[in-house]
Amino acid sequence: MTYRLAACAEMLFLELPFEERVRRIHDRGFLVEIWDWSSKDLAALAATGAEFSSMTGYLRGDLTTDEGRAELIATARESLRAAEVIDSPRLNLHGTGLGEGGLPVVPRESVDGDDWIRAADTLRELAALGEETGRTFVLENLNLAVDHPGTPFARAADTLALVRAVDRPGMRLNLDLYHAQIGEGNLVSLVTEALPWIGEIQVADVPGRCEPGTGEIRYEAVAAALRRLGYEGVIGMEAWASGDPDAALDAFAAAFGEGPGADGPGAGSGASA
């Protein structure tokens, strides 16, 4: 096995202070994902000894408007400086800034050809920033039907098209299979097509956005496909726990080939997660 497993501290062990959530996930042997870094004590998070997988790579902005592009690039620069504190290798982006409840700050029902050109140009600038600092921006697909209505460039097909057009090592996909299942399905074909441009994969089950095994997605088949394809990146569980968070982590690990009796997440890859 070559991939590594991560878990999102924003969605697990919710009764604990944030630093303790990070520590619990780290102690289980997983990499740690966080979202908005501006609300966190990054030095305290670094002091936990956790290894971080990704964090949000901007605070405001969008890919297409002049004001939004300027804000996105400026706050991406801030995010790169923040990433140094916790040594986060990947910084996550969306088609536009998301507000309360994951809704877009400025919703868009459609985009035109000029929007696509401006979005690709914006991503090229961000890719260059990532390459200058040795980090990678990742563009995440979302879903419009349940969680993020009105978000431009939300579909996996859209994010893949943009990252393909940019085609630079500083810009890759954060391929979220929970969102893709709601919006498009056909997950094994999707990961096969997207493989050269994937920077990270995120998972949760449908419906409910809880750990693998609680819904309709057969993640064991997805894991088998990723092993067959030789995927060597990170798979992150960005999911709520349906019950006990430790049991949710166990189910996630088991779905991706790390069942009871294994040495821990990432066993067999020479990795700790």
TrEMBL record:
The keyword Isomerase applies. Keywords: Carbohydrate metabolism, Isomerase. One of its GO terms (molecular function) is isomerase activity. The keyword Secreted does not apply. Pfam families: AP_endonuc_2 (PF01261). It comes from the Bacteria. InterPro entries: HyI-like, Sugar_Epim/Isomerase, Xyl_isomerase-like_sf, Xyl_isomerase-like_TIM-brl. Residues 42-247 form the Xylose isomerase-like TIM barrel domain. Transmembrane segments: none annotated. This is Hydroxypyruvate isomerase. It comes from Leucobacter muris. The lineage of its organism: Bacteria, Bacillati, Actinomycetota, Actinomycetes, Micrococcales.
